[in-house]
Design brief:
alpha/beta; 5-stranded mixed β-sheet
């Protein structure tokens, strides 16, 4: 049976991937356990083991190594749990703003660090999400994109009429095929009274895995473009994206979405 230390060693490559590529995206404890296929109510102990492993290597090598622990957040607070005192003494006594500043500073240090020697020293391999061959096939559209069929249109129109079905309230403007300055068109677009704008990307049940992966990256793109459009709009609204899928997401797609901080709804039920 795997020990907490064993699970910690499996999690370190995932954390170094996050540090290198998505250090400024939200990652949660549930994302970390899902990434290694482990359900545990002892995540605090596992996180402690991760820090112990890093601290032991620091002593052995004489090199300074940043912490990886603050890359993982509590969904409720958007911050590491108060158990982070184990890494930063008196962390729990800091104000929320001070905690955020400390976390961002430490995560940036982890982002700038060369983790390759750490993985090698610990006998670990990088946690690649998928193979290079599969990535090339997705880029070239080998898995296909079905365009707008009847199901896609029905799904889009249902969400436009029922924003509450995906948890969006206080809508004051709804559009389908809403245009962005990049030339992209959003499947569904909402503006809400609390100065929140939503871009909804929908995928019908028949969508292949590659097309859903493209949907994840479309959400990343739309968020960046919408944020940039605030310069033109001279306003301070908040932009959010959501990927809604009538089918079920594969573990690979979930992993990519979690890494990139893209929110999603799968197995979405609607009436045609």
């Amino acid at each position: 049976m795997a020990t907490n230390r064993d699970w910690a060693l499996r999690m370190i490559p995932v954390l170094t991937r996050w540090a290198q590529a998505t250090w400024d995206k939200p990652h949660y404890y549930s994302h970390l356990t899902a990434a290694v296929g482990h359900k545990t109510n002892q995540i605090g102990n596992v996180m402690g083991n991760i820090q112990d492993i890093i601290d032991d290597l620091k002593k052995k090598s004489g090199k300074n190594i940043p912490t990886l622990n603050c890359l993982v957040l509590n969904k409720g607070t958007g911050l590491p749990s108060d158990g982070f005192d184990y890494v930063i003494p008196n962390y729990s006594k800091l104000s929320p703003d001070s905690k955020r500043g400390e976390v961002r500073k430490l995560n940036y240090e982890a982002h700038m660090y060369d983790w390759s020697w750490v993985l090698k020293e610990l006998g670990l391999k990088p946690a690649n999400v998928t193979t290079a061959d599969k990535i090339e096939k997705i880029k070239k559209g080998v898995y296909g994109s079905r365009g707008e069929g009847k199901e896609h249109k029905a799904l889009k129109e249902f969400i436009a009429k029922h924003p509450e079905s995906i948890g969006i309230k206080g809508v004051k403007l709804t559009q389908t095929e809403h245009g962005l300055l990049s030339g992209d068109s959003l499947d569904v677009y909402f503006e809400c009274r609390k100065k929140q704008h939503y871009a909804i990307e929908v995928k019908p049940k028949a969508s292949p895995e590659g097309d859903i992966i493209r949907g994840v990256y479309q959400c990343v793109k739309y968020k960046a473009v919408m944020d940039a459009m605030r310069v033109v709009d001279n306003d301070n609204y908040e932009n959010q994206t959501l990927l809604v899928i009538a089918g079920e997401m594969t573990d690979l797609v979930k992993q990519i979405a979690n890494d990139l901080g893209v929110k999603y709804v799968e197995n979405f039920n609607y009436k045609i």
